[in-house]
Amino acid sequence: MSDLYIDPFPGGLVYVCATDDDGLTHREPRQPGADLSDLPEAVRAEIEAIWTPDVVAEWAASQAPVPPSPAALTAHGAAIVQAHLDATAQERRYDSAQTAVSYRDDPNPQFAAEGEALFAWRSAVWTAALAILAEVEAGVRPIPSDAELIAELPAMVWPPMA
Prior knowledge:
Strand content: 5-15%
Number of strands: 3
Number of helices: 6
Strand order of the largest sheet: 1-2-3
Order of helices and strands: EEEHHHHHH
Shape: elongated
C-alpha cells in the first residue's frame, strides 16, 4: 500500500485512502469524532483540522434518531396491540380477536363465554393502550418497546374449558 491520504466530504465525513500495488484505491470512511489513533500523525492532523468542534457537533446532531411522528407512533402501536389481540384469540383456535368476539351470542356455551371474555378484554386492552399512547404523546413517558407495551396491557383471563 502507498501512503495514506484523505478524501473529505461535506459535513465532515472523510475517507482514508490508500492505493495498493495493483493501482486499486481502498477507501475507509471515518465519521467526525471517530478514533484516529491507528493513523499516522500527519493523516490524523489533517483530519483533525477538518473536524472542528462545530463540525463534530453538527455531525452528531445529524445522526441523532428522529422521533416518530404521532401518526407513525399510533399506527405502529395499533399494529402491535392488534397482533397481540389476534395471537391471544388464536390460543383458543380462533383466527382473530374479531372472529372470537363474534361468538358472544353463540348457542355453544363455551364459544359464547370465550367470545364474551375476549370482548371485555379487548376493550380493556385498547383503553390501556390508548392511555399509554397519550402519555407518550404528552411527553410524560418515553416510547415503550413493543415488549414493554404488551407487558403493560391487561392479561387475558379465559373462561375454563368445558
